[in-house]
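Why do we bother with holo predictions? Because pocket geometry can differ from the apo form. Keep that in mind while you read this record for adenosine monophosphate.
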Amino acid sequence: MTRLRVLLLGAGGREHALAWKLAQSPRLDWLVAAPGNPGMARLGMVEPGLDILDGEAVARFARARGIDLVIVGPEAPLAAGVADAVGAAGIAVFGPSAAAARLETSKGFTKALCDEAGIPTARWARFAALAPALAHVRSAGAPLVVKADGLAAGKGVTVAATLAEAEAALHALFATPGAEVVIEECLEGEEVSVFVACPGTQALPLLAAQDHKRLGEGDTGPNTGGMGACAPASVFTPALEAETMARIIRPTLETMAARGTPFSGILFAGLMLTREGPKLIEYNVRFGDPECQVLMLLLESDLLDLVEATATGRLAGCEVRWKPGHALGVVVAARGYPGTPVAGGEIGGLDSCGATVFQAGTRFEDGRLVAAGGRVLTVGAHAPTLRAAADAAYAAIGKISFADAVFRRDIGWRELAREAGEGLA
Ligand code: AMP
Ligand code: GLY
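The structure, written out:
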C-alpha cells in the first residue's frame, strides 16, 4: 500500500470535510492544509502563510515537503492556474487547469460551449454595456436571471421576478467598470447538484445532492454560497443520471478534450430538472460547499483512492461505495451574511453537540473560537432517514452556543416531503 503525503488547499467547510474524510484513510501518510482553519488544524498540519493563489509558491512548497498529491478545494486557485503549476512540477493534482476551469470562471464560455455541443441549457445573451442589456430585458420581459460573467461565489446572480428587479441588478453590475453580464431565461423545476469525477474523458458519477441557495426559509431572500444540503437526491433518478451523462457531461468532456484543454477533477453540474428534462444552470469545477460536507458523511470507501485515481487518470478499477441512508448539513452563518457578516462572536459546544461539525469562517482569538467569516459552520448528520438526519443536525445546533448565528430551519424540505410521502406542490 502506497501511503501519500497530501497538501489540501482551502479553508472552508468543504475542505474541512475533505480533511475529515482523508484523515480516515489508511493510505494517508500525512496531511497539510493551507491556509486551513481551526477545524482542519485538529486533523493535520496547517500552513496559514502559504499563498494558495500563487501556483509557483504552492509547487515549491509541495516539492520541499515531499508532497505526492495536491487537492485543490476552492475555485480561486484553479482559476489562478495553481493546478497547472503543480502539474508542471511533476506532482499529482486534483483539480483542473486554468483553461478547463473556465467552465466555472466564465459563464459566457460555458454557454458558448453548450451551444456548440448541443447541451440543454437556458437561452442566454451576453452584454458588455448597460443600454443594450436594459433594452434586452425590456423586450424579453420578467422573470429573468441576471448574472455577472465572472467568479462571484454564487452571489453575482439575481433571479428577477419583475422587470424592476432585473433593471436594478443590471445597474448594480454595470457600476463596475468592464463588467460583462449574462442574461438568461428563467428555468423552472427542481435544482440538483451533480458531481462527476472526471479524468479527461473518463467520467464516474458520484451522488447527487441538493443545496439551498437562498438565505431565507422557503427559498426566499438573496442567493448565497449555499445554506445547507442533503443527499442523496431521490429526484435525480438513475434514468435522469443516464440522460445527464449522455446529453450534458460527456459532450462537455469531449468538447474540452477536442479543444486541447481536457478537464480533470470534479465536474459539478448545477442542473434544473425541467419538464423538458435536465438543463444545465452552471458548471463548477470542484466540489460544492456545502454539498461536499454531506457527500463526505455518506462516502463509505476511501476518499484518497478516488482523489488519486481522478488526479492520475486511472479511474478504471476505482470503487466508490456509499453508506445507506441520508446525510444533511445545515450551514450556520454569521448575522449579516451574504452581506457583511458580524465577526468575533464566540462559538462553543462543538465537541459535545452530537453531530459532525465542519468549520469554515472560524478562528482562534485569545484561546476562544470565534466567527471570522460569512458561513461559519456546517452541522451535519447521517441517519437511516433524512428526517432523522435533520432532527439530529438541528438538535445539535440547539446545543451550540453562537450568539450571531443565522441558519435555515427547513434544509431538506423537498426531500423530506418526498420521504414523508406528501408529494410536492
Ligand atoms: P449560479 O451562480 O449560476 O449557479 O446561479 C445561482 C443560482 O441562481 C442557481 O443555483 C439557481 O438557483 C439560480 N439560477 C441561475 N440561473 C438560473 C436560471 N437560468 N433559471 C432559474 N434559476 C437560475
Ligand atoms: N453550493 C454551491 C457551490 O458550492 O457553488
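DSSP finds 13 helices and 24 strands in the chain.
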